[in-house]
Amino acid sequence: MEAMERQIRLTVNGQEHELTIRDNTLLLWLLRDDLKLVGTREGCGTGVCGACTVLLDGRPVNSCLTLAAQAAGHHVTTIEGLATNGRLHPVQEAYIEERGFQCAFCTSGFIMMTKALLDEIPNPSEEEVREYLSENICRCAGYPDILRAVQNASRKLAARGR
Amino acid sequence: MADGRKQEFAVVGKSVPRVDGPPKVTGTPIYTVDMERPGMLHAAILRSTVPHGRIRRVDKSRAEQAEGVVLVVTGEDLKTMPGIDPYFGPAFRDQAILAIDKVRYIGDPIAAVVATRRELAYEALDLIDVEYEELPPVLDPVEAARPGSPLVHEQLRPAKAFADLAEIEPGKATNVCYHFKLRRGDVEQGFAQSAHVFEDWYYSPPAQHMMMEPHAALAWVDSDGVLTVITGSQSPSYVKGSLGAIFGLPQNKVRVMVPLVGGAYGGKLYDKLEPLASLLTFMARRPVKIQLTREEVFITITKHGVVSHVRTGVSQDGKILARKVEVYWDTGAYADIAPRVVHKSGYTSAGAYRVPNIWIDSYCVYTNKPPAGAFRGFGVPQVVWALESQMDMIAEKLGRDPLQFRLENVLLEGDLFATGTPVHSAGLKESLEAVAREIKWEPGVRKAVKPGTKSGVARAKGVACGIKAVITPSISGAIVVMNNDASVNVLTSTVEMGQGSDTALSQIAAEELGVRLQDVRVMHPDTAVTPYDTITAGSRSTYHMGNAIRLAAQEVKRQLFETASDRLEVDPDQLVARDGRIFVAEAPTRGLPIPEVFQARFGARGATLQGQAVFKTYAAPMDHETGQSEKVTEYWFPGATAAEVEVDLETGKVRVVKLVEACDVGRAINPHHCEQQIIGSALISLGQTLFEQMILENGELLNPTLLDYKVLTLKDVPESAVPIVIEVPHKDGPFGAKGVGETGTLSVSAAIGNAVYRATGVRVKELPITPEKVLRGLRAGQ
Question: What span, in angstroms and rounded, lies between the C-alpha atoms of B703 and B700?
């Protein structure tokens, strides 16, 4: 039953960390329990709800399905790493302006997914937004506001020349 | 305050931004699952693998030796603990902290492991051996209600926790834990006079709240011996009382705190993990946290599966003459709040129409399945599904337009509800007309596809409406504290779980005190300092807590005016509070900024003024045999839905192209947030209409993960989803407001079902409306 331990190095939100982990430690647990970055939420533990979405070298992953060891040597970005110098990221601003959240337990995941989407497709069609964000669940069903938040964020980023 | 619309408000009625915005987009630790205490341990729960059985033996010795395990507790241990009454429940004290002697569903908690890490606690569960003597399970609510059925509970103890449930008494030797009756007029004579009588069975399956934040609780005993629990609960005041009863503690030695909650929808009411977390912290003498896995959340509490039989008699000219309704509520192994669900949905089971002769029997039935309780809509959507499906069947038979048929029969101001209660502020007609306008309703009878059409799509629109009553009586207390800089703390036990209560209640306080929105902070529940509130549920907080805050703020204002009137040498009743100043209404330049009023009154930095109020509603006692009451509820919240669907005739798949939901909110304190509630609840209901259902076989849930239980995502949202705020102000509401959290759930399923019928001629009576059922119907019609 006892899991093996190993040492890993990884970069989280620009900061390097060296940690001893159990082999079965998930990236989600490493972020929440070891680094106390609890903005990444656990909703389902099976990679369906998207609340635990983080960026691994810029690509969105479910941190509940990613072993911490898989992140060794890579760059992880979490919701806590989006604001710079105390200033919210345009995607965060857009979610506030459009009220793209209610209980907000899904919001970190939606915002990370939105960032990934807009990095990949700066000016997505509504269809593309619906498809891309269908990996995330909002049980308050604030979807119309979320859709507007993504479109708003896209405009904001374009206006700032990214 | 009969019609607030004529008045000018500074903050109320405006779509101000959410006050809880910034922490919610930055990942700040705000939920129970994020909370920690030094020395904290983690617990995991071992659950029954049989639906019904006696516990012969639980061997925990191997688990006790496992890595990181601090202690293991079983129901057997509970029996010998002095000073603990291990049973809880808001209606009946029927549930033990850990199963004692008997298990009643697959998932019933049997033992708990406390360990240094969460994963170690879960790993140790495999080392506990349980031997059962299996008993025959009861799985069907209609069969379970029959005499002679095996009993889930041998005896029941009423909990006496709420005034509206004070008179509930269980029957003897039956699984029917509550039977609601309503008798009005002479139903048999009504049927005899009817030109047509309709009789149908309908089914609405059990479903999952699927709140994103799982249930969690963190408990510890502080240095003064105060049991302290942080929990994502919708009912902190109740939990305080319940923990006091279980552990024999004075109420000032139980402290329940609720931070922001990551969604609840009725699934986080009453006792959930709090009793077990408290027990374990007493035993371990260290803080203990429990957080459920998603699979555990699925079987902790559910939406009732409901079987309804509806019999309706109508005259040839389209008047409803008689309605007899029989409803079976599958409440699973523990009653939770089901008797209230059955009571409140019971008396609305004749629908939103004028019906002179009514007979309702509504049965709350135990089975060996996961417990069912409150779910956004509180049972009314399941009943409306049946009633409003049948309304379209009646309209068709009479050759009437379904919208017109409804408008002719719908309850209007002053009409008597089924309970004999006059209806006030119930914008049913307004809601129906609004959705019809928005969807561009085309009057007429249905246009079904031609028989034999096997491909292409069929399009049609459907409509439905529903009405729900707020829980009455109930109580909300509030304390408003104004600081000497005019900033305000509002002490309330209302739980912010996403609905926007922090914002709406701030708006109400700011409006009443004449300060800016950003001057107000609504404090989150901490039962050591925040007053009693019945629950945050049932669309009651804006009205009840809004009124309490308003009254408490008026008391603060009275004291401000008292001092200001001395200074300004005018009568207090000539003063108004606005823009942070107290001034003479007729001469606005004669006034004082609030800090100067404080200076005059106290001359002390940091001084405060307090106002407190308890807002309590009353119901006229209901006759037990007839369900009649002059005043059954404080207010009604009606809503209507129009849906346009596209049905793929080859696959049977239904796509909702447009969804319009109109709800009478009384008055919108924050219109945008009302729209969010309206369309959010309508969209969740859309998911429950088309695909959501918990599938059980022999009491075992076959789809306990999100991989198998499909919920609505952005891809399923109709191209057009339109919320409409209807305002028919309530005479006693704060600024005319009522509630809106659930209204959008009521009639969505029926509107979609009616649209599917009008498109295809297929009448689905069992939710969800899956492609398989539609296709089967299409084939049968060919």
Answer: 9
Instruction: Report the pLDDT averaged over residues B753-769.
Output: 97
Which CATH number does the domain housing residue A126 bear?
1.10.150.120
Task: Say if residue A128 is in the same domain as residue A66.
Answer: no
Query: Is residue B451 predicted with pLDDT exceeding 70?
Result: no
ipTM score for this prediction: 0.97
Please list the residue range(s) of chain B that carry CATH number 3.30.365.10.
4-29+474-616, 302-471+622-780
- What's the rounded mean pLDDT across residues A33-57? 97
Per-residue confidence at B3, pLDDT binned at 50, 70, 90?
very low
| Residue A65 C-alpha, separation from nearest chain B C-alpha, in angstroms | 13
Look at phi and psi of residue B317 and say left if phi exceeds 0, alpha if psi is from -120 to 50, else beta.
alpha
Query: Is residue A54 domain-shared with residue A71, that is, in the same domain?
Result: yes
* pLDDT higher than 90, residue B732: yes
Residues A11 and A76 in one domain: yes
The residue to which tokens 């345009």 are assigned: A90
Q: Could you tell me the two tokens for A118?
A: 């807009």
Comparing C-alpha atoms, which of B342, B414, B344 is closest to residue B619?
Answer: B344
Say which DSSP state A86 is in.
T
Fold classification of B4-29+474-616 is Aldehyde Oxidoreductase; domain 4 (3.30.365)
B246 pLDDT above the threshold of 50: yes
**Sign of the alpha-carbon dihedral angle for B595, B598, B600, B606:** negative
CA distance linking residue B293 with residue B57, whole number of Å: 26
Q: Which residues of A touch B262 (CB under 8 A)?
A: 41, 103-105
Number of structural domains chain A divides into: 2
**pLDDT tens-digit series, residues B113-132:** 999 999 999 999 999 999 99
Please list, in sequence order, all residues whose beta carbon lies within 8 angstroms of the beta carbon of residue B259, skipping any fewer than 6 positions away: B30, B31, B32, B35, B230, B232, B524
Query: Is the model's pLDDT at B449 over the cut of 90?
Result: no
Q: Where in chain B is the domain with CATH 3.90.1170.50?
A: 33-137+215-291
Average pLDDT over residues A68-79: 97
Tell if the CB–CB gap between B684 and A129 is shorter than 8 Å: no
pLDDT at B390: 98
Of A44, A106, A146, the CB nearest to B294: A44
Distances (CA, A) of B622 to B339, B340, B344, B420, B633: 15, 14, 12, 10, 11
pTM, whole model, 2 decimals? 0.96
Of A30, A52, A81, the domain-final residue: A81
Convert the pLDDT of each residue in B524-535 to its tens digit.
999 999 999 999
* Tokens linked to B632: 């059954």
Six-digit token string for B250: 């004075």
**DSSP labels, B478-539:** EEEEEETTS-EEEEE----SSS-HHHHHHHHHHHHHT--GGGEEEEPPBTTTSPPBS-S-TT
CATH of domain B302-471+622-780: 3.30.365.10
Q: Count of CB atoms within 10 A of residue B189's CB? A: 14
Domain range for A24 is 5-81
Same domain, A74 and A105: no
Residue of B421, B377, B341, B433 lying closest to B633 (CA atoms): B421
Whole-number Å distance between alpha carbons of B312 and B323: 4
Choosing among B16, B19, B26, which should be mutated to test the A contact, i.e. which has the most A CBs within 10 A?
B26
Residue B608: phi and psi, rounded to 5, are -135, 155
Q: Which CATH class is domain B33-137+215-291?
A: alpha beta
Q: In whole angstroms, what is the distance from residue B498 CA to residue B507 CA?
A: 16
CATH number at residue A57: 3.10.20.30
Given a contact cutoff of 8 angstroms between Cβ atoms, the answer to whether B289 and B42 are in contact is yes
Point out the residue among A24, A48, A92 whose CB comes nearest to the CB of B25: A92
